[in-house]
Design a protein that fits this description.
With 295 residues, this protein is an all-alpha fold. It is 72% helix and 0% strand. Helix 2 crosses helix 13, helix 3 packs antiparallel against helix 10 and helix 10 packs antiparallel against helix 13.
Length: 295
């Protein structure tokens, strides 16, 4: 039977979204890709004839840049330690809140979620004062229990850990809500059957809850990984990438070259290296998830 409806109607509904996606996502990506093959800088914006096509030179220079290499290692440090801690902590808190019977657990949802909706710059400024080596609250508490002061933002290794602690505190809330929604979507009949078989709470978690949360865990893993690969606000506000570039992330490196030093082509090349890395890591995660689903 022939349809009497207008076949163009669905396209009219999705047209606004496609137009916005093209203007504010696809077009800037294409422009940045073209810029990455040129030596464009602040002075050449006034005279486009001064822009020269240099091919892959920006990419060759950026991968040889010792600061860029260090920023990659710093970003890997953030990802390796930050992502697992975020997933473990947010999932653990979601489980505690879901299985908690007292009314206070309902208030915990708001308490843990509030940091994720707080302005990151304001939070970073406050935590900078908390980390202050002389007047900060953390070292003051350590002094009360007769422990030495910690150079939170002045030691290269401890500075990275300090930024991870702040980012972990901010990231738990949103992921906790995602896990909590997924947990509450699990049918109660599974737990009732497990209780009849004599399974305790821990057995139910490892045999029922975690296997049924694999898609939620995958989603949180991918989004958290992408977020940590783009780690920027915390080191930018709190350390400016120091000390000795020990907290410089790839995103901060790109910002420095693009907006502070006006080397737009060089910064665009660095951004596409990060862009490709994010795509490759995401595809690897998808591949492993498909293998687990097939099993």
């Amino acid at each position: 039977m022939k349809s009497t409806g207008n076949s163009k109607t669905p396209y009219l509904f999705i047209a606004p979204a496609l137009i916005l996606l093209s203007l504010f996502s696809l077009l800037p990506i294409a422009v940045a890709l073209m810029i990455s093959f040129t030596d464009i800088n602040l002075s050449s914006l006034a005279d486009w004839s001064a822009i020269n096509f240099i091919g892959l030179q920006n990419y060759l220079d950026v991968v040889k840049d010792p600061i860029f290499v260090k920023s990659i290692l710093n970003t890997l440090f953030y990802v390796v330690f930050g992502v697992p801690f975020v997933i473990i902590c947010s999932l653990s808190i979601a489980l505690l809140i879901n299985f908690g019977k007292a009314r206070i657990f309902k208030a915990f949802r708001v308490i843990f979620y509030m940091p994720s909706i707080t302005n990151v710059v304001a939070v970073a400024v406050v935590w900078s004062y908390l980390y202050n080596p002389q007047y900060g609250l953390f070292n003051y508490l350590l002094k009360l229990i007769q422990l030495p002061a910690v150079p939170w933002l002045t030691d290269p290794v401890i500075a990275k850990i300090s930024l991870i602690i702040l980012a972990l505190w901010r990231a738990i809330g949103l992921n906790m809500i995602i896990f909590l929604a997924a947990i509450q979507g699990i049918p109660r009949t599974y737990y009732e059957a497990a209780e009849l078989d004599g399974a305790g709470h821990f057995r139910q978690i490892f045999s029922i809850t975690l296997p049924l949360l694999r898609y939620a865990i995958f989603f949180v893993s991918v989004t958290t990984m992408i977020g940590w690969l783009q780690f920027f606000e915390e080191p930018f506000v709190m350390t400016k990438g120091g000390p000795l570039d020990s907290t410089t992330s790839v995103a901060l490196f790109i910002y420095r070259n693009g907006f502070q030093q006006s080397n737009f082509g060089y910064a665009a090349a660095g951004s596409f290296v990060l862009f490709i890395a994010i795509i490759v890591i995401t595809l690897i995660q998808f591949k492993f998830t498909r293998k687990e689903a097939d099993i």
